[in-house]
Amino acid sequence: MQNKLAELLAPYEGEKGALIPILQKIQGEFGYLSDKIIHEIAHFLDISESEIFGVATFYAQFRFTPHGKHVVKVCLGTSCYVRGATQIMEALEQKLDIKSGETTSDLKFSLERVACFGCCALSPIIVVDDTVYSKITAEKAKEIVSSYE
Ligand code: FES
Predict the structure, then answer these.
(1) Please, how many CA atoms are within 13 Å of residue 77, restricted to the half-sphere of its CB?
(2) Spelled out in words, what is the top-level CATH class assigned to the domain 70-146?
(3) CA 121–ligand 1 middle distance (angstroms)
């Protein structure tokens, strides 16, 4: 990791203003921003770790914990909600034994909630990685997730 990190940081020598692109690039490579990575960036840019956290926590795109291999997103927007999205989320939380926003300990799945995918006519919706599953039930959602195991 150390070599790859140094390689990614090298073009930004002395560029404190490039913090966001640096964080994007590094998260793109490692999947999330660990404490160790934040420490290394702080050292490289000669700024404090709290300054980096202050910027990174402002943007929802940055993650500080590892993501699962598969990301399961459950839509809890109004249209999906009235068609059983809560039951779908509960079924998946039970199946994966995690809560929304968490990742399984084997790093296979992360479970997230989304406000609306913009395809309400097909609700309720879940999305696994980049695949959209429409008009599903809690039972069907569990089967879909099982197919990724
Ligand atoms: S509310 Fe779920 S897709 Fe719009």
Answers:
(1) 16
(2) alpha beta
(3) 8
- Number of the ligand 1 atom closest to the C-alpha atom of 114: 2
Report the C-alpha gap between 124 and 34 in whole angstroms: 34
State the virtual CA torsion across 113, 119, 124, 126 in degrees, nearest 10: -50
* Residue 59 DSSP code: S
Q: For residue 74, what is the enclosing H or E element?
A: strand 70-75
Looking at the whole model, is its pTM more than 0.90? no
Which residues lie with the beta carbon below 6 Å from any ligand 1 atom? Answer: 75, 77-80, 116-117, 119-120, 123, 125
Position in ligand 1 atom list of the atom nearest CA 77: 1
Mean pLDDT in order along the chain per 10 residues (149 residues): 87 89 92 92 94 89 88 96 97 97 92 93 95 97 97
14 SS3 class: coil
Say what the pLDDT of residue 1 is.
66
Q: What is the pLDDT of residue 66?
A: 85
